[in-house]
Every structure is written in C-alpha cells, then in structure tokens.
Amino acid sequence: IAGITQAPTSQILAAGRRMTLRCTQDMRHNAMYWYRQDLGLGLRLIHYSNTAGTTGKGEVPDGYSVSRANTDDFPLTLASAVPSQTSVYFCASSTDSNQPQHFGDGTRLSIL
Amino acid sequence: GQNIDQPTEMTATEGAIVQINCTYQTSGFNGLFWYQQHAGEAPTFLSYNVLDGLEEKGRFSSFLSRSKGYSYLLLKELQMKDSASYLCAVRDSNYQLIWGAGTKLIIKP
Asked: Residue A83 in 3-state DSSP?
C-alpha cells in the first residue's frame, strides 16, 4: 500500500542523546515536510524539502537537522535531545508545494 | 505575525449540522486547507479553497471569503465517526502551511 512510513512509532530518550526519526514515502512525491504537534498548538513546520537535494528551514528549526539524499527518504535528526523536544512528530509529503500534504502516522517522542 | 484562529471545542448531535469557523491573518494567501484528525492518528486532507465561495464534497462543504480572512467547514448529517479534531491551515506567500490549533468536535447521540 502506497504511503508514508515513519519509524519508530514511539521512543523514550535520555536528554543529550542523538536521535534520528525516519520517514520514507513511495508515492514519488517531490516535497516532504517535518512537523511537530504539541497540545494546544497547531502543527509547526520544522524543516521541509521541495525536491531531492534541497532542504529549507521552517518555523522551529533549532535543534533539528534534515537531509534529502533521494526522493523517498527524509530523516530528521535531533543532535542532542532536550526535554522541550518532547512532542509528536509528523512527516508529510506532497506532489509539489501546491498540492495537499499526506501525513505519516507520527512518532511520539519523549525526552527525559 | 501570522495567526489562525479556530474554536477550541464544539459539541453537536448525531444527525445534525455543524459549522466550524476559521479566521486567519497571514503574510500572503495561496489557499486554505481543512484536515481531519482523529485522536492519536495522522491528519487527513478534507478540502481546499483558493477562490471565494463554497466547495462541496459529499457531507462536507468548505467556504472561503478572502476579503474577510474567513473560512468555515460545514458538516451535515453528523455521524459518530465525525468525532475528531478539524484543522484549518493557510498556505502563505512562501507556500508553507500555517496551521490553526484545531477544533475538537464532540458528537453526542
């Protein structure tokens, strides 16, 4: 079944550790996005990529990095996790930046 | 700054009609999206408006007034499965989505 796969589903992580959240799509979408969703707040864009080989910063990029080596994969890395990064992280993709975004099932991350 | 406002929570009765409002102030406008999100799940796309007026899709309709910075999502013949959060998002001048915090809709029998 075509779609977006995120891994892991959930994770508990000690502060200061490095963590990579994985995102893979098989829809050949050009654009991909990483959001965090916190209670009472709207989805906030962390980083995005309009096409393979390019990335851009969103609203809340600090403490996060991404890469887009190919069309399918868009990993998000927390270099040194802090408790304020406890959140639900959603990866999304779209044909291009004009089209609706399709979301993965999310990663629930707790930083202790 | 950019701002999307939606009511935090609404309650409606099964079989009835409910209207969820969204007002926005953004740097530029390139379309407005509505998404549905069930608890613990991913958002799923419902509708898209870029021109003023009403877009109808089955039991769901979405309206846009760009001059007023206003949209609403209308849900008819409510079913229990419609209990979810409804997210309003505006695509700004950079073609990035600015999201509201969502409206939690509770359907009562």
From this structure: helix
